[in-house]
């Protein structure tokens, strides 16, 4: 039987009970325990601490919410922290563009720089909490990001959290995130611990993820598509955690999957750090209507630990005591899991005085500092993808009169994406445009909702309380509005809350068993009907003028409820809405305003005098996301059922276009959209993603030419939903630019500029390589336009030996800044891994002798690429 060095060390320490004297130079003659000695290795200290624990204490340390063990000086911790694009769910933080937008920058160095700032904020927030003796969720040092699943199908609601459809781009971005979070490895302690998720073969559907099994992948797809990013983050970036996914793979839950966890991750890749379950994933082993692969919680927990899952997000591992008693698991297996968990905490300096931890000196002033806001603005600018610019309509003149319409124009929350932090100020796209034009030059109307032609024009602006606009929001961590108040805030826009992804209502609020009260006074600006709309899971009541007019005092999901108040101009009406949550998912939506059917022609005629229309549409993280309760036209459970722009928005655009004025679509989404009519008929299209707190400034900078866009699509924009294979089929045939046989509207890697670039003929330093050789592609790049800008040089390789392989595969890229009229020389190294492909004979990734096409250019479209040939011998 083979033992790794950590297990051998553990056995030695267990058997010897070794203690170490304090380091020389200390005048004390006392002997301190190994685990308390910061001069010793994390391995030694962790094993020493394991042997001092009772069985019950060990089990408590395998839970994501691990309690304190005062007798040994072990503080409480919660392993669950989020930093997808900024420190999330922990109060104030800088909100960077959503991950899919980060991918669109094709700027690996910029992502690294951003996550170095994010980790600064995380450390500062942690040490402030620690100084207050607070060790709650979202205050720790282990962050469950990045999400490096492949965005194989644009219908997946969580695809916005990923870096797109390409394994190489995902790998490079994921490694930058890990290095930015964990630090460069030169310090005594790790800065943070990152987590590669969700391992593996996981990208929807959301509505059945607790029971879904994609089946066994063909070796080609497993090794060439679904695993490369995980392998690189483990073996190269040295990520400290891996999260196993909810779904099954080949009949076995991912969190007890022997092939994925033991054979590949632990044995082949030599990963000896922490594996954590997705939240509630172990429950799914035995829960009715979930996987149902195990009879009991004890059996599920024992199998998961034996399979290598060290930390359970949830409480199922509490049954490990029962599992030990029944002989389902040896305590030594639990010891190994606890060792890995404790070693990670020693590596982070959790048990040592802050004076020894260099990261503790990061001041709290870094949180949402000027430098961090400047960086999120720069990343938002770089993420903007110009898809259409008919007759150089863009940039717009700052002397124009603009009508700004659309459901995302004045919405700040949409810009945050999901798994987000909370900035002190968000620049909406409307505000960004207004900041560029003079008074009276911007006309605004929401015009439409995301779907459906029933529109509620919000009258939230007619509500005030305590001298402040909107509603006062008070939250309790009880179901009946009693006990200490845990959160207060001011609501100035319609409320759309969903606990999908275990999103808390506000920092410090429970996921379950909480209650919320909204209070304000409505002073109507006009007489007539005011419609109150509420959706709740679980109960609510609406009180107007002290009288209850609408209520649902039960558990379970309730669809939209309406109450119409006949208001009198200037006559104040007190408004109170109470909501409580009891079990499972939470949802609470509220708005008030004028309900009407959308008059498309009338809307367009109303603004016919303007110089141009900017329609800020698309979708929202409120309706695409993780396992949501949303069930709308085109959406189910957070996933999409269709990828076209919702019909109501397309109809608005057609009506605007009929005026003959220029129409620009600014599309916000976390996934690709089908734009067949839009690409043919609109004058401009900007793909803005969910661009973070400075998104409005970035969009305005592009619209008015203060910034030259250079973002590139990290995924294919198909022509129609009909172009997509069955959503639940995980094989790659017909998917992504690598295997899609059709003609997309916009290909992977595509993006326009306000200038033009000319590629010189490239050379390659070696055209004949051995299997372990590297080479370098060199080319000249000239900016032939009148505006400085960036070009993203992309390199794709085709393996001519494998006709069943990808049509082409991205293997390198470089974002290059070039001044107007300037020529720069670009050198792009290609190491031997650039020529590594799946070998169907050996069913491994290998560099196979033969001919390879090296394609270089501005997108994945063959007509945008030039070719060189390389031979591998």
TrEMBL record:
Alphabetized UniProt keyword annotations: Hydrolase, Signal
PA14 domain location is 466-608
Q: Name one GO molecular function term.
A: hydrolase activity
Extent of the signal sequence? 1-21
Organism the protein comes from: Terrimonas ginsenosidimutans
Task: Name the family the entry cites.
Answer: Belongs to the glycosyl hydrolase 3 family.
Q: Which Gene3D superfamilies does the annotation name?
A: Glycoside hydrolase family 3 C-terminal domain, Glycoside hydrolase, family 3, N-terminal domain, Immunoglobulins
Identify this protein by name. Answer: Glycoside hydrolase family 3 C-terminal domain-containing protein
Where on the tree of life does the source sit, at the highest rank?
Bacteria
């Amino acid at each position: 039987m083979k033992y790794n060095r950590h297990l051998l060390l553990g056995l030695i320490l267990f058997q010897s009970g070794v203690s170490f004297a304090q380091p020389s130079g200390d005048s004390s003659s006392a002997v301190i325990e190994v685990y308390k000695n910061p001069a010793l290795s994390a391995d030694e200290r962790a094993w020493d601490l394991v042997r001092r624990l009772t069985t019950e204490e060990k089990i408590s340390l395998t839970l994501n919410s691990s309690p304190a063990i005062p007798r040994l000086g072990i503080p409480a911790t919660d392993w669950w922290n989020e930093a997808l694009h900024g420190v999330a769910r922990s109060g104030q933080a800088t909100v960077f563009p959503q991950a899919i937008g980060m991918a669109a920058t094709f700027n690996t160095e910029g992502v690294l720089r951003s996550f170095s700032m994010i980790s600064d904020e995380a450390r500062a927030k942690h040490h402030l909490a620690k100084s207050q003796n607070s060790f709650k969720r979202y205050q720790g040092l282990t962050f469950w990001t990045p999400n490096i699943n492949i965005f194989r199908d644009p219908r997946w609601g969580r695809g916005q959290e990923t870096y797109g459809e390409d394994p190489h781009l995902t790998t490079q971005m994921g490694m930058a995130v890990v290095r930015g979070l964990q630090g460069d490895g030169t310090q005594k302690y790790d800065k943070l611990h990152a987590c590669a998720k969700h391992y593996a073969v996981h990208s929807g559907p959301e509505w059945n993820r607790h029971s879904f099994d994609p089946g066994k992948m063909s070796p080609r797809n497993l090794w060439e598509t679904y695993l490369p990013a995980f392998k690189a983050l483990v073996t190269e970036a040295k990520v400290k955690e891996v999260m196993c996914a909810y779904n099954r793979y080949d009949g076995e839950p991912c969190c007890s999957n022997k092939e994925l966890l033991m054979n590949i991750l632990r044995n082949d890749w030599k990963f000896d750090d922490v594996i954590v379950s997705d939240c509630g994933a172990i429950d799914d082993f035995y829960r009715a209507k979930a996987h149902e692969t195990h009879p009991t919680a004890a059996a599920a927990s024992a199998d998961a630990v034996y399979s290598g899952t060290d930390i359970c997000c949830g409480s199922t591992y509490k049954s490990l005591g029962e599992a030990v008693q029944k002989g389902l698991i040896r305590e030594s297996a639990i010891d190994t899991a606890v060792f890995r968990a404790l070693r990670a905490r020693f590596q982070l300096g959790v048990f040592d005085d802050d004076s020894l931890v260099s990261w503790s000196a990061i001041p709290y002033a870094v949180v949402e500092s000027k430098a961090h806001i400047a960086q999120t603005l720069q990343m938002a600018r770089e993420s903007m993808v110009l898809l259409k610019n008919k007759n150089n309509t863009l940039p717009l003149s700052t002397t124009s009169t603009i009508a700004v319409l659309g459901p995302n124009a004045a919405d700040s929350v949409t810009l945050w994406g999901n798994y987000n932090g909370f900035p002190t100020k968000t620049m909406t796209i409307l505000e960004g445009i207004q900041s560029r034009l003079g008074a009276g030059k911007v006309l605004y109307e929401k015009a439409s909702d995301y779907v459906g032609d029933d529109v509620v024009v919000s009258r939230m602006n007619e509500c005030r309380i305590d001298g402040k606009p909107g509603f006062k929001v008070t939250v309790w961590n009880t179901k009946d509005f009693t006990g200490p108040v845990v959160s207060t805030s001011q609501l100035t826009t319609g409320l759309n809350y969903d606990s999908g992804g275990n999103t808390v209502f506000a920092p410090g609020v429970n996921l379950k068993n909480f209650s919320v009260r909204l209070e304000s006074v409505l002073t109507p600006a006009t007489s007539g009907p005011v419609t109150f709309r509420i959706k709740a899971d679980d109960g609510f009541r609406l009180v107007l003028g002290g009288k209850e007019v609408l209520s649902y005092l039960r558990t379970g999901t309730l669809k939209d409820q309406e109450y119409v108040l006949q208001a009198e101009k200037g006559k104040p009406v007190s408004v109170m809405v109470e909501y409580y949550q009891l079990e499972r998912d939470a949802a609470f939506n509220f708005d008030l305003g004028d309900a009407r059917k959308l008059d498309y022609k009338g809307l367009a005629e109303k603004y016919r005098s303007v110089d141009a229309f900017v329609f800020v549409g698309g979708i929202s993280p409120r309706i695409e996301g993780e396992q949501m309760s949303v069930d709308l036209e085109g959406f189910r459970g957070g996933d999409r059922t269709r990828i076209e722009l919702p019909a109501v928005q397309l109809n608005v655009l057609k009506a605007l276009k009929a005026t003959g004025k220029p129409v620009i679509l600014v599309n916000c989404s976390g996934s690709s959209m089908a734009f067949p009519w839009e690409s043919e008929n609109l004058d401009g299209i900007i793909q803005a993603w969910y661009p973070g707190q400075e998104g409005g400034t970035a969009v305005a900078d592009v619209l008015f030419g203060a910034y030259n866009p250079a973002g590139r699509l990290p995924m294919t924009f198909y022509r129609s939903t009909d172009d997509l294979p069955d959503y639940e089929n995980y094989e790659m045939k017909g998917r992504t630019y690598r295997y899609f046989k059709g003609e997309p509207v916009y290909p992977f890697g595509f993006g326009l500029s306000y200038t033009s670039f000319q590629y010189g003929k490239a050379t390659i330093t070696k055209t004949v390589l051995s299997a372990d050789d590297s080479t370098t592609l060199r080319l000249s790049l000239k900016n032939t336009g009148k505006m400085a800008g960036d070009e993203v040089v992309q390199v794709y390789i085709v393996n001519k030996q494998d006709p069943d392989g990808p049509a082409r595969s991205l293997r390198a890229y470089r974002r290059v800044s070039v001044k107007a009229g300037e020529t720069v020389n670009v050198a792009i190294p290609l190491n031997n891994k650039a020529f590594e492909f799946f070998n169907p004979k050996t069913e491994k990734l290998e560099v196979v002798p033969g001919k390879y096409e090296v394609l270089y250019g501005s997108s994945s479209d063959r007509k945008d690429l030039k070719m060189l040939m390389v031979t591998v011998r």
